[in-house]
């Protein structure tokens, strides 16, 4: 009985291996690759971007950051080189973490005009007008 089961299993494995070998010789359809290459290749990010993504990509090529998504430039915080704070109005609430390991935030109003100092640490901040891109 056991030898009969072994022979049946061997035949089943042999049939499976034969079928796999026959099917592997057929070329696989590659219509998607042919279609992409026929129309000039795979489109770049710039070619297929739409909406907000397209505006951001175009702005980054010009070197601008219309939605403030890039890391801001670091400033010394001195009177000659104050931290720049963009605003669409003539005043803005600013929070200063005066020391790196400090957990408290010092909040104060920053008004347009001359650079102003943080009341706690003395770092300078300057409000500059900012135009929205839309």
UniProtKB/TrEMBL annotation:
Organism: Culter alburnus (Topmouth culter)
Residues the entry annotates as binding Zn(2+): 96, 98, 118, 121
Domain of life according to the entry: Eukaryota
Location in the cell: Mitochondrion inner membrane
Transmembrane segments annotated in the record for this chain: none
UniProt keyword terms in alphabetical order: Acetylation, Membrane, Metal-binding, Mitochondrion, Mitochondrion inner membrane, Signal, Transit peptide, Zinc
Main location as per UniProt: mitochondrion
Gene Ontology CC terms: mitochondrial inner membrane; respiratory chain complex IV
One GO MF term: metal ion binding
Name this polypeptide is given: Cytochrome c oxidase subunit 5B, mitochondrial
């Amino acid at each position: 009985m056991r030898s009969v089961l072994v022979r049946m299993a061997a035949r089943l494995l042999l049939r499976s291996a034969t079928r796999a070998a026959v099917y592997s010789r057929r070329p696989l359809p590659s219509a998607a690759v042919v279609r992409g290459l026929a129309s000039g290749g795979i489109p770049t990010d710039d070619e297929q971007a739409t909406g907000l993504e397209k505006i951001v990509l175009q702005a980054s090529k010009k070197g601008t950051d219309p939605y403030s998504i890039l890391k801001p430039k670091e400033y010394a915080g001195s009177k000659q080189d104050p931290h720049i704070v963009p605003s669409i109005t003539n005043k803005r609430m600013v929070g200063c973490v005066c020391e790196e390991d400090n957990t408290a935030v010092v909040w104060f109003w920053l008004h347009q005009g001359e650079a102003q100092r943080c009341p706690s640490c003395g770092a300078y901040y300057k409000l500059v007008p900012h135009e929205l891109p839309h």
